[in-house]
Design brief:
Blueprint (H helix, E strand, L loop, with lengths): L5 H15 L5 H25 L7 H19 L4 H23 L4 H20 L10 E2 L12 H26 L3 H11 L1 H6 L4 H27 L1 E2 L2
Antiparallel strand pairs: 1-2
Helix pairs in contact: 1-6, 2-6, 2-9, 3-4, 3-5, 3-9, 4-9, 7-9
Length: about 230
């Protein structure tokens, strides 16, 4: 039986990035931070794809995370990157929990198109909302970390390290979740959902849980991307 080296690889990669990060050019730090944000979204899509579901609407939760992070600064003056990501992920997860009662009933192209339709509803609302900048969007406050504002030359590195840390923890948690009984149901649901029901497990509940987790990851990624770019629009 092969030893699972996932934790060791993730931790080692984070340490290497932490050491090499200060010598990276600013543009490389920016690209890597955005890549970590998109990676969080992809991590959520992985959960859905393992269940045989294709979502065309993860932009809904990515956008909710981004706008939640921006709204914290715009209306409450909060710019801590960890608070922004936490709120972004929580808002996305809460929304997915409600929508999941509907979406968990559907499979295949119906799931994909319904998720896309919901994301387009949010887009329509945002372009009509003047308080959130309509089609122009609005700028986001520069990031702070745990209440501390890094020096200008260290901001990009601090955000990169924060992004890498959050992405690493998320990857390890998803890896652990996939080893749980609920996580192992994903391939079974993809192959034969009726047999899963005969075994006493609820396929709908499993899909609902995975949908919420995927949304939370997309919300985290959206909040991280918004704070990195410094601007958000529909």
């Amino acid at each position: 039986m092969k030893r699972d080296r996932t934790i060791a690889v993730v931790v080692a990669s984070f340490v290497v990035l932490a050491i090499a990060g200060p010598w990276l050019p600013q543009w490389a730090m920016f690209i890597m931070t955005v890549a970590f944000a998109r990676g969080l979204v992809a991590l959520g899509l992985l959960l859905l794809l393992r269940t045989g579901l294709v979502s065309f609407g993860q932009a809904l939760f990515y956008c909710l995370g981004a706008y939640s992070a921006g709204a914290l600064g715009r209306f409450f003056g909060i710019s801590d990157i960890f608070v922004e990501m936490l709120v972004g992920g929580a808002v996305a997860a809460a929304t997915a929990f409600v929508l999941g009662f509907l979406l968990a009933r559907y499979r295949g192209i119906f799931f994909g198109l319904l998720s896309l339709a919901l994301s387009m509803i949010l887009y329509g609302l945002l372009v009509k909302t003047e308080a959130l900048g309509s089609t122009d969007g609005f700028n986001i406050l520069p990031s702070t970390l745990l209440g501390v504002r890094p020096r200008p030359e260290w901001v990009r590195y601090a955000v990169l390290l924060s992004a890498a840390g959050v992405a690493s923890i998320a990857a390890l948690l998803v890896h652990r979740y996939l080893q749980t009984p609920l996580g192992r149901l994903a391939p079974a649901i993809k192959d034969n959902e009726i047999r899963v029901e005969y075994m006493g497990a609820s396929a709908r509940r499993a899909v609902h849980v995975k949908y919420v987790i995927a949304a939370a990851l997309a919300g985290l990624g959206g909040a991280l991307a918004a704070t990195t770019v410094g601007h958000i629009d529909p």
